[in-house]
Every structure is written in structure tokens, then in C-alpha cells.
Amino acid sequence: MRPDRLLVVDDEAGIRTTLAGILADEGWAVDLAESGEAGLEKARAEAYRAIFLDVWLPGIDGLETLRQIRRLGNETPVIIISGHGSIETAVRATKLGAFDFVEKPLSLEKVLLTLRNALRADRLERQSRSLREQLRRDTELVGDSSATRKLRDDLARIAPTAAGVLLIGERGAGKELAARIIVAGSPRADDAFVQMNCAAVSREHLDEELFGSGPEAARRGRIALARDGTLYLGAIDTLPAEICLRLARAVSVDEAREEDGPASDVRIIGGVAEGEAATRAAAGGSPLDRLHLVPVRVPPLRERAPDIPALTKHYLERFAREYARRPPALRPAAEAALAAWHWPGNVRELRNLVERLVILHDGPAITEDDLPAPLGGKS
Questions:
Q1: Residue 138 is assigned to a structural domain of this protein
Q2: Which residue in 210, 278, 218 sits closest to 245, CA to CA?
Q3: Residue 353: count of CB within 10 angstroms of its CB
Q4: Predicted model pTM
Q5: Do residues 288 and 295 make contact, with C-beta atoms less than 8 angstroms apart?
Q6: Together in a domain, 266 and 312
Q7: Which of 61, 83, 258, 325 stands the most exposed, by the fewest C-beta atoms within 10 Å?
């Protein structure tokens, strides 16, 4: 395996040799450059973990070299080194994107400590970017069918408001994704997003799960955890009437009563399976009326059939990325079989199938035979 590489750019041969020796003793492979121009060429050709860059160089100086490195879109941590350090130079280097500034004569401990800190900060920044990208993918409504466009418009219209929302849809249709899209487009996007499946909590524990138990120091409930943010309650129609009443009081939907304590600023998004209960909840006349939730329907996948190829491609690429594999191609017969299936489990069923295919399939392309038997395959 090729070792991680560092780059040292300095016009003094003694400094280059000394730094190379120090870093090599720590297990690094080190490339050397004696000018800014040479350093730029190496930075274009090689992906370095970090760059040590002298300020005073023949030709273009270190700060101009740093500026051009950043213009390349290169975000490698850069540590500025100089025998003529000043606060002004350090400030300029930092504004250009340098991680830190160390002075000559170089201290072994200072060099290694600064390098460790730079690598740690770079790792955290990469993780942060990865999480942000994952969050973006997790709040992406894939497809361009008329049903998807309507849902996208409905979510975009209600997201910036303070209104509570009742998401109505079959199991696996994407109610939780719709909730996340609402949160991402709301003023509460950076605040807490707390979830609970009401049907998975026994009746005797619902009160404790939602409102907590005991004094302030005891276990906090979901409402307290979601304060100033959003609480998503799946199967919200299973909540007893008395819990709905107390929930409404707790989140300021109705006027809070003294015995319930101060109200919390929490936006409620509920999920309910499509059917008689959902129709009743949307039309009024159910305990959920006290929560004043605006109904939004999440259509099943069979009503979004034109989206199936795009969704399949989306999940093939996503799971290939997650499992560090090359995304397999999808043969036309396999694609036609997927499009023809009625998907009783909706988007969740498609997602789970594609994940299994990515994990278990070794060839360059997925054929019809690779699909499960109900879809016409032999798997």
C-alpha cells in the first residue's frame, strides 16, 4: 500500500532535508519542492495529506502559491513556515486558508503537533461534509412524475410555515422522508428533529415517552428533547384522546393549562397510514383535531410509476457508494420488470431490494434473472 504523502515547499535545502527526515521518521512519504512553481505542479499531480509551505520563495512567494493552490479547488491543509514571521503575515495566510503558521528555527515538537492538529481538523471537516451530503441525499424527493411534483410542491409550500402537518400515506410510501423535507425547508432546520413511532409504544408508557417522568432531573420526554425543533410522531392516530389533549396543551396548540406547566415551542408532524382512520383525521371529528394538523397526502409508488427508473438508479448509486462498490448496470429486461411490479411495500420495498442486489450481486450488470421470483427472476 502506498504511504500517505506530505509536500514540503522551501527554498532552503537544509530545511527541506530536516523536515523530510522528521516526517519520514513518523512514517510519512515526503515530496520536496524548492519553489512555489514546483510546489504547484506537485500539488496538481498528487493528492497530499498536508503541505508545509515557506513564505519567502524565489519566483512566486508562499502566499501567492497558497492562493493558487486554493484556486485549484485543493483543500489540503497548508502549514505556513517562515523565518521572518509577523502577525500581519500570519493573518494574511489564515485569510487565504492556511491552517497554521510556524516559525523557523523549526521545533520538532511544534511541527508534529501542528501536523497532527491539521490532520485532525481536516478529518473532522471531511466528516462534516460527508454528513451534510448524506443529509442532502436523505431529504431528496427523487422523481418527476406528476404525483411527485405535486407532493414536492405541497411540501415546499408548507415547510416554511409554523403549521403542524399530518402526512397520510401507505406504509413505506415515504412519510418520514416527507417529514425530513419539511424540516429541511423550515426555520427549524438546524434545531432538534425527534421521532417516535406511537404504535410501537405501549399505552401505559406513552405518557412517559412523550412527557418524561419525575422531577426536572429525571428522564426527559420526547417533547422536551424536541424543544424549539420538530417532533415526528409516526402512527399518530393510535394516540388515545387524553394523550392528544395533553399533547396539544404541551406544545401550545391549545391554550396551555396551569397544571400542565409551561408550553413548549415544538412543531408536530404526524404520520398516519392511508385508510379510514386517516380519512377521519383529515376530515375532522377525531382526537387529532386539537393538534390542528394540515393534511398532506404522500402517494404510493404505484401512483409514481414513472419515477421507478430514477429511484432505482438513485439507490443503486447510493448503496454502491456506501458499500464501496462499483454501481452495477441495469439490463433493460430487469428495468422493465421493476417498472411493471405493483410494489405493495412502496419505496421502502424498492430501496430494500436494490440494497440486497448491490450487496449480493458480483457481476457488472443486473439481469432479470437476478430479481426475486415474484418479479419474474430466479433469485
A1: no
A2: 210
A3: 20
A4: 0.65
A5: no
A6: no
A7: 258
